[in-house]
From TrEMBL:
This is DUF6160 domain-containing protein. Residues 1-26 form the signal peptide. Residues 7-80 form the DUF6160 domain. Pfam families: DUF6160. The lineage of its organism: Bacteria, Pseudomonadati, Pseudomonadota, Gammaproteobacteria, Pseudomonadales. Keywords: Signal.
Length: 347
């Protein structure tokens, strides 16, 4: 219960910081009765309730569009003994955590959020879970990631040139026979894994291709022969042939959440290219939270949990919230500047 209380206090501070970072101006103007009768709207804050399998939920919804840039020295949640995990490890541990980035001239590229909410889960009169989430989120999430617990799918997609650079002569021949050139676009699905390539949703320290996951061609008309050759490029033990397919989370210092190449229209309530269903939660027992995309309840294990799920874009396509190219996968991503002034990290 103490861990839930501390988490709730931290989340309230985070929400207040985000709200405080937004800018707004207003002027009180008297409205006539006729004008008032023509106005309809929704409360800035509203309360909703839910129920599932004996658990009651209370959700505080904030009708806000937030732009924030914030830094936290250490984001550590769920530090307690957990079977099969290293001593003194935590469910989520990110040093120098930041949302949003800063340019060389100290202008800010904010992390964008719409409709943040705070939700409590009750078993009787006991709080067993709390989560903070956003309908939409877009921007850079930065930090020195030590461990993650949660659901964080990644799409790796790009030209095959970095793969040729890392491949040996035999692998070059196989790729060529499969009809793959340096300009061919390949793709693969990645996520949190162990150093051996098994799926790892609890205190993961690596990300990459799960065992059995294969490279596929996104712009090829594959023949049976070509498809058979590409099937050789399936990940096993964090390798595709001799190519590494799993990498320490610490290699990725700044992760793009959502489609950052799609400019946001300031005249719309939605954030174009934003990821959906983002939430951070803490449970004292297994708790099912309602999923943004399917509207169904999804079970989350006890402890801290970060959810940045696949979501449906404006065309109804299911897409990954984080997209990398193969060069970034092999070589990592340097940290974006997240501090005003001369410092770039640790502010």
């Amino acid at each position: 219960m103490n861990s839930v209380s501390r988490f709730l206090k931290s989340i309230l501070i985070l929400l207040c910081t985000g709200v405080a970072s937004t800018s707004a101006s207003a002027k009180m103007i008297e409205m006539a009765d006729k004008e008032l009768s023509d106005v309809s709207g929704q409360a800035f804050i509203n309360l909703t309730t839910d129920q599932n399998a004996g658990i009651d939920y209370t959700r505080i919804n904030l009708g806000l569009k937030v732009e924030t840039q914030l830094n936290i020295k250490q984001l550590e949640l769920g530090k307690y003994p957990r079977a099969g995990e290293p001593v003194d490890s935590a469910d989520i541990l990110i040093n120098n955590f930041a949302l949003g980035t800063v340019n060389a001239d100290d202008t800010v590229n904010p992390f964008q959020i719409t409709n943040p909410y705070l939700e409590l889960a009750y078993d009787g009169n006991k709080v067993v879970g709390v989560r903070v989430g956003f309908d939409e989120a877009k921007g850079y999430l930065s930090g020195d990631i030590k461990s993650l617990t949660g659901n964080i799918p990644i799409k790796i997609e790009g030209t095959a040139s970095p793969i040729f650079d890392a491949a040996n002569t035999f692998e070059d021949v196989l790729l060529t026979l499969a009809g793959v050139t340096r300009r061919t676009r390949l793709q693969a699905d990645a996520g949190l894994v162990t150093q051996g390539g098994d799926s790892d949703l609890i205190r993961a320290t690596y990300s990459g291709l799960e065992n059995g996951q294969r490279l596929s061609c996104s712009d090829c008309n594959l023949t049976g022969f070509t498809d058979a050759l590409l099937s050789l490029f399936s990940s096993n033990g964090c390798e595709v042939l001799s190519l590494p397919t799993c990498f320490p989370l610490g290699n990725f210092q700044s992760l793009p959440v959502g489609n950052l190449n799609l400019a946001d229209n300031p005249n719309t309530a939605a954030i174009e290219g934003a990821a959906r269903g983002f939430f951070l939660s803490l449970q004292t027992q297994d708790v099912a939270w309602r999923d943004k995309d399917s509207n169904a309840f999804r079970n989350v294990l006890a402890g801290a949990f970060l959810n940045i799920p696949n979501y449906r874009d404006e065309n109804g396509n299911l897409v990954a919230p984080i997209k990398l190219n193969f060069e970034q996968a092999f070589n990592g991503i340097a940290r974006e500047d997240t501090c005003l002034g001369s410092a770039t990290v640790g502010c």
